[in-house]
């Protein structure tokens, strides 16, 4: 039976047999399931169900924390018109920085006043389309919705992080106008291993950015995003000087 839901549809995208909505409440658990299956499991059959359950719980809590308050960010989801199944998700989060430090994690022994003013950067993350729904333009529509949200909140640029080996995602971001601002080697990322367990490994990631000003529609700008997963984004953003430098660099606020 199809659940009766009061939907808040977004006006932006015309999708075949699906709608974009703003995520809230129980949507975060479903989005976490979609993300874990698309990003971590991605067709592998040897994964322990307990590992999946634990990743899903961690993701649910992380997504709710990051995207529940419109001041801090937003998550968008695509649901099938008929079945209401959640098919895809993506989020944009406004992260604050104080000097070289993530605002929330300035060490106690550092004088906050000596670090200047905080800046905020919209980061697109947690993009995933369930395997059965790929190739229908859902990811593209979700990234556009995140950009629109950032622009409506006064931001002029968006940034994202993608693993260098993720060719599908890189192709998508390139087509949407994102360009590589910095290559970051030896970044910590949570990845599923051959034994069916998720572990932190070192990967190369790309910081990509895009101006939200003067966007041409329909040309190669349209065709002119890590999370990488939330876990990866958090690892990278919390402890990497190169990345912070790159983010501040492209915003011209070093
Ligand atoms: C990457 C991902 C989100 C794409 O989702 P999707 O809904 O199938 O993407 P779309 O249909 O909107 O396709 C948009 C573009 O993505 C790229 N793309 C999608 N599937 C692709 C594939 N199999 N091979 C190469 N490029 C592909 C193409 O550039 C495509 O544009 P086109 O249709 O004009 O060729 C999906 O494959 C996924 O969930 N992957 C696992 C999770 C992940 O890697 N997330 C991104 C982390 S940074």
Write up this protein.
The protein has 254 residues and is α+β, with helices and mostly antiparallel strands. The protein has a single domain, classed as Gcn5-related N-acetyltransferase (GNAT) (Aminopeptidase), CATH 3.40.630.30. Strands 1, 2, 3, 4, 5, 6, 7 and 8 form an eight-stranded mixed beta sheet that branches. The longest helix is centred in the N-terminal third of the chain and has 19 residues. The radius of gyration is 18 Å and the shape is globular. Bound molecules: coenzyme A. The site of coenzyme A has 25 residues, from helix 1, strand 5, helix 3 and helix 4.
Label the structural class. alpha+beta
Rg over CA atoms: 18 Å
Quickly count the helices. 6
For the report, how would you describe the main beta sheet? 8 strands, mixed
Helix content: 25-40%
Q: Tell me, briefly, the overall form.
A: globular
Q: State the end-to-end CA separation.
A: 54 Å
Can you tell me the CATH class? Alpha Beta
CATH homologous superfamily identity: Gcn5-related N-acetyltransferase (GNAT)
User: Unreliable runs, pLDDT <50, ≥5 residues?
Assistant: 217-238, 247-254
The hetero compounds bound to this protein are:
coenzyme A
Q: Averaging pLDDT over every residue, what do you get?
A: 82
Extended strand count: 8
SSE string, helices as H and strands as E = EHHEEEEHEHEEHH
Per CATH, which architecture?
3-Layer(aba) Sandwich
Task: Give the domain tally.
Answer: 1
CATH topology category name: Aminopeptidase
Q: Strand-residue fraction? A: 25-35%
